[in-house]
Write a structure and sequence with these properties.
Elements (H helix, E strand, L loop, with lengths): L2 E6 L5 H15 L13 H9 L2 H8 L3 E5 L2 H4 L6 H21 L4 E6 L12 H10 L4 E4 L19 H10 L3 E3 L11 H18 L3 H4 L5 E3 L10 H10 L5 H4 L4 E4 L5 H10 L5 E2 L11 E2 L4 E2 L3 H6 L5 H15 L3 H4 L3
Parallel strand pairs: 1-2, 2-3, 3-4, 4-5, 5-6, 6-7, 7-8
Antiparallel strand pairs: 9-10
Helix pairs in contact: 6-7
């Protein structure tokens, strides 16, 4: 089984966007009431997937996508905690419907109802609902719900611990994934996403979080941001800070995906990061949707890059399947070996 650990519902029916527009309109004018429910039919969901994600799964030879709401659409910086809760519930319910219609193709991951300045403890109920009622296997955690201004404590601060306690109880991992940026300095997919990946890794490096929570698991997406390219820098910083070696300090708890959109980047990732810490992912249909003129293939067809690597069959299977099963253990009940 080839498991893509990083997919978002970027092709959701237009009605989802209209619901959000009306929700935001109510924030500006309380007399403009937002709808209570989302009116999308099963056929509309099928149409939105058959023309995009499912078509690409078949063409590219992948089997299962770990699927979550559109990351850029989480927009935790907009509105109140109540706004975020309702929006997260709507988006997570929609993912649950997708999984119900295509249980062999998708498994759910939820967004959290985060809001600037609001304790992550307020997200625990929604995480519990999605895992225990819907069978979701993980969630996305936004280290910067302010949308590019980084006003929250680092991920290693005790402020986050109520959420981590629930992660341990449910035995689910988190993918570190910011949302849209309202800071004009940071383009959301080209800068803010990569900044966040790199920042999260450095936060983990400088902390003893994994002594407090030895079974926590985080996936840093987009190939780990700058981390693999600057692995020597991070090894050196850890050494200068008298921290343990990175393998001992982080690599039992921190993993990286393959959302890197050219072969040299994937080659670097697999040379620097241990194979046991790499999970296959494409983020299709996502940040980069075009065709690379140097290859005549889509940039986000990341399976092609891995297929070209001189890997043993054992290591290839780890990247495509077995590492995902370790990091997302709830997959094993749904898809036994």
């Amino acid at each position: 089984m080839i498991i893509d650990c990083h997919g978002h519902y970027t092709t959701a029916p237009k009605a989802l966007e209209l619901f959000r527009d009306r929700q935001l309109a109510e924030l500006a004018d309380s007399s403009r009431k937002s709808p209570k429910t989302l009116d999308i039919t099963d056929d509309q969901i099928r149409d939105s997937l058959e023309a995009a994600q499912l078509k690409l799964q078949r063409e590219r030879g992948t089997d299962l996508t770990i699927f979550s709401p559109r990351a850029g659409g989480m927009a935790h910086h907009i509105g109140t905690a109540q706004t975020s809760m309702r929006w997260s519930q709507i988006c997570n319910d929609l993912i649950h419907r997708v999984v119900g219609l295509y249980p062999k193709n998708f498994v759910g991951v939820c967004q959290l109802p985060q809001s600037p300045g609001v304790s992550p403890a307020e997200c625990v109920t929604e995480l519990q609902r999605c895992v225990t009622e819907f069978g979701f296997v993980g969630f996305n955690i936004n280290p910067d719900p302010s949308g590019g201004y980084w006003r929250e404590p680092p991920l290693t601060d005790r402020w986050w611990y109520p959420l981590y306690e629930k992660m341990v109880e449910l035995d689910v991992p988190a993918m570190v994934h910011v949302s849209s940026s309202c800071n004009p300095c940071f383009h959301h997919t080209g800068a803010h996403y990569i900044n966040a990946d790199t920042t999260a890794f450095m936060q983990f490096l400088t902390s003893d979080l994994f002594k407090d929570f030895p079974t926590l698991r985080f996936v840093i997406p987009h190939g780990g941001g700058a981390v693999p390219y600057h692995w020597g820098r991070y090894r050196g910083l850890a050494q200068d800070m008298k921290r343990p070696p990175l393998g001992e300090l982080l690599l039992k708890n921190v993993f990286f995906d393959t959302c890197v959109y050219h072969l040299p980047g994937i080659e670097l990732l697999t040379k620097v990061i241990p194979i046991d810490n790499i999970l296959f992912a494409s983020e299709m249909v996502g940040a980069v949707r075009g065709i690379d003129p140097t290859t005549d293939h889509y940039y986000d067809d990341t399976k092609r890059y891995i297929d070209q690597l001189p890997l043993s069959e054992e290591n290839r299977k780890k990247i495509f399947e077995m590492n995902a099963r370790r990091v997302y253990p709830r997959l094993n009940a749904r898809f036994p070996l």
